[in-house]
Amino acid sequence: xxxxxxxxxxxxxxxxxxxxxxxxxxxxxxxxxxxxxxxxxxxxxxxxxxxxxxxxxxxxxxxxxxxxxxxxxxxxxxxxxxxxxxxxxxxxxxxxxxxxxxxxxxxxxxxxxxxxxxxxxxxxxxxxxxxxxxxxxxxxxxxxxxxxxxxxxxxxxxxxxxxxxxxxxxxxxxxxxxxxxxxxxxxxxxxxxxxxxxxxxxxxxxxxxxxxxxxxxxxxxxxxxxxxxxxxxxxxxxxxxxxxxxxxxxxxxxxxxx
Length: 258
Ligand SMILES: [Fe+2]
What we know:
Layout: H1 4-14, E1 16-19, H2 26-45, H3 47-50, E2 60-64, H4 67-78, H5 81-89, E3 96-105, E4 124-130, E5 141-143, H6 154-161, E6 167-168, E7 176-180, E8 185-187, E9 196-205, E10 220-222, H7 230-241, H8 243-256
Antiparallel strand pairs: 1-7, 2-3, 2-10, 3-9, 4-7, 4-9, 5-6, 5-8
Fe (ii) ion is lined by residues 115, 117, 185.
């Protein structure tokens, strides 16, 4: 039985929690196998298109969901995700818009710069489901506990970051994580030879901007992080091949814009 009071305290303080062994059912395993099959199929058959996506050079791409993700969500609901979210946020699932998503990190790539996913408001919460064991070698997400509480600029964050504890979301198949989207985090390098696949459910506080999402017949890869333009490509190349310059650029820009 989950101790939700304890999880709530942890979530408020650290901005993330891990729920161990929540999706350890036969249905969950079948769904995970299906996601994996679709992702690998898409990777093999669309590689030429995937190479052109924003995020490919970094090695961190979006997963555009197929119908199997709806089944993962049903499974999560059966395992009590509604009660968990209610406890953590004092709001019901109906108070949030739900987006089905995911993230894929490519073998030998995927190291990102620290960032937050969007702005602090409207509040967004991510529920992450790895489809298999997610070890240190597989490029887990690294985050700074507690960094969701205060809004902070890029340059200030980096001055403080060295003194902060960093956590990697190393998980077993069946575990899930829940995190504030605003927490400072990054994808780490996937040193394995396989694709690192995480299914994501993004809960956004309703603000009237929800548009119906297209659910595909098969999983596809999508752009991630950088703008889809020549300018975006150049920025991404600099971030990968000249990371120090990219860091200085972002650092200075955040000082100018403060
Ligand atoms: Fe992110």
